[in-house]
Amino acid sequence: MTDLVLQDNSLTIEEISAQLGASSTSSGPSIPAVGMNYDGEMGPMGAFYLKTGQDQVYATENVRFRAFSNHIQFQHWGDDGLVNKSLLIKNQREEARDQLGGIMCGMPTYDQSIQMSPQEREQYKDIDRYRIVRGIINYTGTTSDGREVTIENQPCIMSLKRKNYGPFYHDVLKKLPQGMNLWDFESILSKDTQTNSYGKKYYVMHFAPQFGSPIPMDQLTYDSLAHVSGLIASENKRIEESYKEASMQAIDEAEAARIMDEVNPLEADYRV
Hints:
- The chain is α+β, with helices and mostly antiparallel strands and 272 residues long.
- The protein has one domain.
- The protein has 5 helices and 8 strands.
- Strands 3, 4, 5, 6, 7 and 8 form a 6-stranded antiparallel beta sheet that branches. Strands 1-2 form a two-stranded antiparallel sheet.
- Strand 3 (64-78) and strand 4 form a beta hairpin.
- Helix 1 crosses helix 5.
- The longest helix is centred in the last third of the chain and has 53 residues, at 219-271.
- The radius of gyration is 23 Å and the shape is globular.
């Protein structure tokens, strides 16, 4: 293996692996998200593409994704955008503290949700559990105007929820050989077309990990991992600070309410 020049933070590859949730044993420009196409006028239905907003490139085959990290995050979205989000956690045994001082953005557990009525569950419909996977993607595809474009080692992020939440675990993590990390191989992406109860088609992403074609560690990979590790640490630091601030505000408001509850009876006694 290539001798690695450690970054200033001096993290070893084992320490990076632990932070990224990538081991088998356990702000700048926006990074585009990987999507599946639902607009037939832009490209083939179900094609993979990067959500860049312009000159998007669509491909239906030989899309290769190399994961660098794997986390779980709870997010609450409203009509005006993101309302709240939790820490990026490596597994659900960790506490998913969120920006507004709560846990899991207020999302009920499975046991709680099955005891709710449909009307009660409706109020949580905008809160979801996401699998957040960062990495790089390679493929050759076409733009909406027919130009062929090759994407090489493009940093990207996958935000996978609901039916798309589970496949990465079952296809990749559950099968990850002992001693192997996520970045040691690529996965070839594919899709499964399904139909919901309303007759509307949707797509589920799947991964075919190429465990038999390992990718050697090199300086570029190490630098990329260190960068991703820094991004995750920075995001979690911001969310943790917001959680503590919101929690302290809630404590202050509760104490103010308690004092007012004690003052009001005293005022009533005084008037008598």
